[in-house]
Amino acid sequence: MINRQIAIGGTYMRVAGICLLTLGGGIVIASSVVLASPSQSSQAQTPPAQQKANSQFSRLPDGPGKETLIKVCGKCHSPMNVIANGQSREGWENEITKMAGLGATASDEEFTEILDYVTKNFPPSATKLNINKATAAEIETQLGLSSRQAEDIVAYREKNGDFKTLEDIKKVPQLEAKEVDVRRNRITFQ
After folding, report:
1. Distance between CA atoms of residues 40 and 62, nearest Å
2. What DSSP assignment string belongs to 123-175?
3. CB environment 57-86: b (16+ within 10 A), e (fewer)
4. Is the pLDDT score of 67 beyond 80?
5. Which distant-in-sequence residues (6+ apart) come within 8 Å of 39 by Cβ?
6. Measured distance CA(44)–CA(94) in Å, rounded
């Protein structure tokens, strides 16, 4: 008896059993029972890329408009684009208009819901963060990086000395250059 999961056309199936019957002359008849397995966890059926995206979006604050933002904007962007770039209502409105022009599709009501959500949860930052003086906790909260990324920045700085340019920050292992680029206007070195 074999009991294993196989994927057929993106659907997971469970092979419940295989029976072999040997007839005279070496003829073998094989029979198997394949059952759809709805009891499999949604995590097992969710592709790894989608699992990663879901965990990234968990960093967004809950509230009206979050799911709409994920549905409309998550097709092309990481939530870091939103978290790292607080703007005024006018700034967010210009950003949404630009994205609609580039192909983002949603109803007027959905775009308004997204605008209300990002305006409330991601206002413009009043000050820039001195990356050479900031603690890991300050880097995490003010730049919207993960605690691991913030700790890596501090550890790298302590080992190699103060950062002088954005290019220096991009040398931090496990920190993608795009993570630094989207935050460039919120970082200072003095």
Report:
1. 28
2. PPPSS-EETTT--HHHHHHHH---HHHHHHHHHHHHHH----SHHHHTTSTT-
3. beebeeeebbebbbebbbeeebbbebbbbb
4. yes
5. none
6. 39
Contact 28, 21 (CB under 8 A): yes
- For residue 129, count CB atoms less than 10 angstroms from its CB and return exposed for 0-12, middle for 13-18, buried for 19 or more: middle
Report strand pairing: 187-188 vs 27-36. unpaired
Q: What is the pLDDT of residues 139-166, one digit of tens each?
A: 887 887 888 999 999 999 999 999 999 9
Q: Which CATH class is domain 129-188?
A: mainly alpha
162 close to 134: Cβ distance less than 8 angstroms:
no
Looking at CATH, the fold of the domain delimited by 47-121 is given as Cytochrome Bc1 Complex; Chain D, domain 2 (1.10.760)
| CA 98 to chain CA mean position, Å | 22
Q: Residue 55's pLDDT band (boundaries 50, 70, 90)?
A: low
Residues 12-49: tens digit of each pLDDT: 444 444 344 444 444 444 443 433 334 444 444 555 54
What stretch(es) of the chain map to CATH 1.10.760.10? 47-121
Q: Could you tell me where in the chain the CATH 1.10.150.280 domains are found?
A: 129-188
Give the containing element (helix H, strand E) for 99.
Answer: helix 89-101
Q: Rounded to whole angstroms, how far apart are CA atoms 188 and 170?
A: 14
